Amino acid sequence: MQSNLIYAELLKKVKNYSDNELKNISLKYLYLKFNLSSSDLLINKTVPWNKKTQEEFKIDIKKLTNKIPVQHITGSEFFYDRVFHVSDKTLIPRPETEELVDVIIKSEKSNHKKNILDIGTGSGCIAVTLSNHLTSNVIGLDISKAAIDVANKNNALTSNKVSFITSKIENYIPEEPFDIIVSNPPYIPKSDEDKVDKNVLIHEPHRALFVGSDPIYFYKIILEFSKKHLKKNGSIYFEVNQNYIGQIKNLLMGYDFDIIKDLYGHKRFVVIKT
Ligand SMILES: C[S@@+](CC[C@H](N)C(=O)[O-])C[C@H]1O[C@@H](n2cnc3c(N)ncnc32)[C@H](O)[C@@H]1O
């Protein structure tokens, strides 16, 4: 089947989105489902099309109309430089987190082997990408066994270089200290639930999104953890909630830290040098 025809079918049959949203979602679906890029569409590349593909396509159109995230339909999302497995048990990796990973890769590139810990690893997108770009031993840790299963599938695609551990950070005692600790922890307090997009609330794991009543709970826990398990001259990289940046700055009083804005101009990343 010609890719332009598949694209046209999506634009015609999927309902419940604005024109712009529908274009973006359709292009993402074509990429994740059929590996079709925008240039493939320009040359109207042909996609193998059998009865099974046709049936799946019909079902996918219904799911898209029912606002199931395209990443859950295809079981995948692009992150940094490759496609990752995702499920409804993992957060769908966000573009901001790609920026965080880029900051780390650019700052930490050296031949010196480093021990890195990614806390709240989810799909393993941060851990696996860092292990591909830095000469490092990487450990990814998450409270959710179901998320670690997905992270291990992603690890298998790049020769199982990361060690994934199912544990609460509160209970984790590592064997060796780390040079780098990175975390994109849950950072939405329960009281902000009404500000979260309804579709995110329905489809993404609440344990990945919400933090209880204290929005900076995980930063406190990780700083305590790093006092015992981060080497001298180590680094901590956090993704943070811009709405609570004041509280985070107070928490970091006495530390050597920088705040970096994301592409939208939001204060989103904190880099701490110890
Ligand atoms: C915001 S998600 C980040 C997922 C992934 N690192 C990413 O950036 O896409 C936070 C993750 O922290 C995990 N988590 C929540 N509470 C935890 C805890 N107490 N200890 C370890 N992980 C936890 C959740 O299961 C979830 O996978």
Structural commentary:
This protein is an alpha/beta fold and 274 residues long. The model has no long low-confidence stretch (mean pLDDT 96). The strands form 2 sheets. The chain has a 7-stranded mixed sheet with strand order 5-4-3-6-7-9-8, with helices on both faces. The chain is globular. It folds into 2 domains: 3-74; 89-273, Rossmann fold (3-Layer(aba) Sandwich). The chain is built from 12 helices and 9 strands. S-adenosylmethionine binds at residues 91, 93, 97, 120-123, 125-126, 141-144, 147, 168-170, 184-186, 207-208. S-adenosylmethionine (SAM) binds next to helix 7, strand 4 and helix 10.
Core attributes:
single chain, 274 residues, alpha/beta, Rossmann fold, 2 domains, seven-stranded mixed sheet, two-stranded antiparallel sheet, 9 strands, binds S-adenosylmethionine
Q: In oligomeric terms, what are we looking at? A: single chain
* Shape designation: globular
The total beta strand count reads 9
Fraction of residues in H or I helices? 40-55%
Integer tally of domains: 2
Number of helices: 12
List all distinct small molecules, including ions and cofactors, that are bound in this structure.
S-adenosylmethionine
Distance N terminus to C terminus?
A: 57 Å
Biggest sheet statistics: 7 strands, mixed
Helix-strand topology string: HHHHHEEHEHEHEEHHHEHEE
Strand content: 15-25%
CATH architecture of the largest domain: 3-Layer(aba) Sandwich
Q: Under the CATH scheme, which class of the largest domain? A: Alpha Beta
Strand line-up across the major sheet: 5-4-3-6-7-9-8
Low-pLDDT runs of 5+ residues are none
CATH superfamily of the largest domain: Vaccinia Virus protein VP39
What structural class is derived from the secondary structure elements? alpha/beta
Cα-based radius of gyration, to the nearest Å:
20 Å
What is the CATH topology classification name of the largest domain?
Rossmann fold
- Average pLDDT rating: 96
